[in-house]
Amino acid sequence: xxxxxxxxxxxxxxxxxxxxxxxxxxxxxxxxxxxxxxxxxxxxxxxxxxxxxxxxxxxxxxxxxxxxxxxxxxxxxxxxxxxxxxxxxxxxxxxxxxxxxxxxxxxxxxxxxxxxxxxxxxxxxxxxxxxxxxxxxxxxxxxxxxxxxxxxxxxxxxxxxxxxxxxxxxxxxxxxxxxxxxxxxxxxxxxxxxxxxxxxxxxxxxxxxxxxxxxxxxxxxxxxxxxxxxxxxxxxxxxxxxxxxxxxxxxxxxxxxxxxxxxxxxxxxxxxxxxxxxxxxxxxxxxxxxxxxxxxxxxxxxxxxxxxxxxxxxxxxxxxxxxxxxxxxxxxxxxxxxxxxxxxxxxxxxxxxxxxxxxxxxxxxxxxxxxxxxxxxxxxxxxxxxxxxxxxxxxxxxxxxxxxxxxxxxxxxxxxxxxxxxxxxxxxxxxxxxxxxxxxxxxxxxxxxxxxxxxxxxxxxxxxxxxxxxxxxxxxxxxxxxxxxxxxxxxxxxxxxxxxxxxxxxxxxxxxxxxxxxxxxxxxxxxxxx
Length: 530
Known about the structure:
The structure is a single chain. The chain is of the alpha/beta class. It has a domain at about 105-415: Alpha-Beta Barrel (TIM Barrel). It has 19 helices and 20 strands. The protein has a four-stranded mixed sheet, with helices on one face. The protein has a four-stranded mixed sheet with strand order 8-7-20-19. It is globular, with a radius of gyration of 25 Å. One of its GO terms (biological process) is methanogenesis. GO terms for molecular function: methyltransferase activity. This is Trimethylamine methyltransferase. Keywords: Methyltransferase, Transferase.
């Protein structure tokens, strides 16, 4: 047995250390991009079978409705049309293309966040990202859902700008008050780039909008040409409509994105029992096939072009035919889809946290925790739909966004795992404290490791019951609402800065410059409402 050494000398005053402990947040214990991949619902043999099934589907069945532009690109390079006019990808072609896929890329942050908040996208580096395009927003004053607006896009973005565990922006809600497609896309881009300098993933309604959006990105990134040098946005969409059919508009956007050499994001969401087989394995195989078709097209256009493996198999409640995003089956099949992306050594994304609950209640907590945790531990590069989503992606909530951000910190801590070393095993500290004083609370070792071992949630209630009674009996929603209100009442960024005036001359910007400096009026509850 090694000789026990005396306890290390105290460093600094006890009062100073205790004050530091009182202010601890635990942020040293976590960081963005921690590796996942320990949860593996599929065996190696299972993955090989799914891969084989997906290639058979692509070779034999193929995809319906390929547009002429696509055929001009892929047919001379080895794809073929079958007797039904469906675009098929021979197995040998797919194997060759998969050998050359991009295994990593960066999505850059802008301005003061550049560098430190860049996203390194690889297989298994875990980040949390917003998205969802919810058509309604939950209003805490009226306790009801109302149509989402352009102002909501800006407000959700500036809220996320102050939330540490949501690493990427997305179009969380839809601006239902902007009906013109071009105006919608440009104003969505403007509201998000004004509200935060975090990396972003955006969708567009038409390919013609991409060059205009790139000019907006340049205005927000430092001038003409700056965006393409360090892309801070990836372009998303759903180029495949299950089962196995191309969607024209999103396919065109994917083609143009690949021609630019920009990162192609996508989502392929077949629903088990509705637009894909009722069996989880069958839905997984179809989703992988549909995703690999996109991977093939992008790499036939620009070899090695970065693309996200985004198989998003969804679950249907076969009693009602409705999508159910919070089920145990959803958590399981999402993890399996991530595992298949890791099989191809590609950065992945997956939809998770898609609770079916309408409020942050017990169902909400159960469904979010299950889907978040399994997706993260399966090694999803991006957990999308992460923040604030309610009602099977139909609604979003500012309060839920704050709650989910806090959950993200706790999940990241589980990803980091347990560090085992002589220092952390603390044999000498055990010996010293067990003899005198009989506890570890004031020991230097405890204070030194407090913020590196533990995450300290801001919203979770860990007080005694009598303290909770005395301080107003608040629940999680109350505390989340208070935090969201604090941010939304005080944080009004416009990261276009001096370029804002030029942007307003060139684009049909709807949000007023002065309007963005104050909080929008909030609806009041109707008389007699609870």
